Amino acid sequence: MGVVLGGSSLQLVAYVNGERVDATEMAHRPWRDLVKHPRYAELVLIECGLRAKRVTSHMGRQYFAHYPSLECPVVHKSESPQHLAMKQALKDRINAVPGWTAEVEAAHPERAWTADVLATNTDGRRLTFEVQLSQQTEEEFVRRSQRYVDDHRPGVGCPQRLRLVPGAAADDRNGLR
Ligand SMILES: [Zn+2]
Q1: CA proximity to 52, closest of 76, 80, 30
Q2: CA atoms 143, 149, 87, 55: torsion sign
Q3: Where are the domains of the chain?
Q4: 127 C-alpha vs ligand 1 centroid, how far in Å?
Q5: 51 CA → ligand 1 middle, Å
Q6: d(Cα 87, Cα 92) in Å, to the nearest integer?
Q7: CA 98 / ligand 1 centre spacing (Å)
Q8: What is the mean pLDDT of the chain?
Q9: What's the pLDDT score for residue 169?
Q10: pLDDT tens string 39-74
Q11: Alpha carbon of 160 to those of 20, 21, 91, 132: distances in Å?
């Protein structure tokens, strides 16, 4: 994989000193004023650690992207605004369910995986959701899911994993209802 300049990878979450800054959790005004924040220059994308900037779409949607003219050695997952909107909508629906809280682009502490949406119950159960807009081969889904299965470290656990395909019933691979 070669080095790409800039890149248009859009993300919902950036980090400052390891702490999440979630674009889906920010009201319009603090989002607009984020560029004036003293630590704005410390915002990075999690996968490459390179500087991030905030981007607002014509529709008013809020994203993070590479700061211009950075050479990034990482090939980020390329996700459409539609895909990102699905993640946010899913998070909002889960948060409306008593006992559950959700966050988008939830990263494993050691970055073994990033869940599109991670839902956590007050009883400790966790579910990860993968939003899928295009057809994905079975092998690809199994390969990506394997990263979760491989995660057996104590205290981290292995979240149940569900796949969501808009227009179809959720793929209930784990027998959960
Ligand atoms: Zn990058």
Answers
A1: 76
A2: negative
A3: 4-72, 81-164
A4: 27
A5: 8
A6: 9
A7: 36
A8: 79
A9: 42
A10: 999 999 988 999 999 999 988 999 999 988 888 888
A11: 23, 25, 16, 17
State yes or no: pLDDT of 168 exceeds 70: no
- What is the pLDDT, as a whole number, of residue 77? 76
**Which helix (H) or strand (E) segment is 31 a member of?**
helix 28-33
Q: Which residue is listed with tokens 């700061």?
A: 67
Q: Which CATH number fits domain 81-164: 3.90.930, 3.40.1350, 2.40.440, 3.40.50?
A: 3.40.1350
Q: How far is the CA of 42 from the centre of ligand 1 (A)?
A: 14
Q: Which residues hold their Cβ within 5 A of ligand 1, which is an ion?
A: 48, 50, 72, 74
Tokens of 72: 């990034």
**Cα–Cα dist 105/96, whole Å:** 18
User: Token digits for 170?
Assistant: 């959720």
**What separation in angstroms does the CA of 49 have from each of 24, 44, 52, 107?**
20, 5, 9, 14
Write down the pTM of the prediction.
0.73
Tokens 């989002």 sit on residue: 31
- At 6 the pLDDT is 43
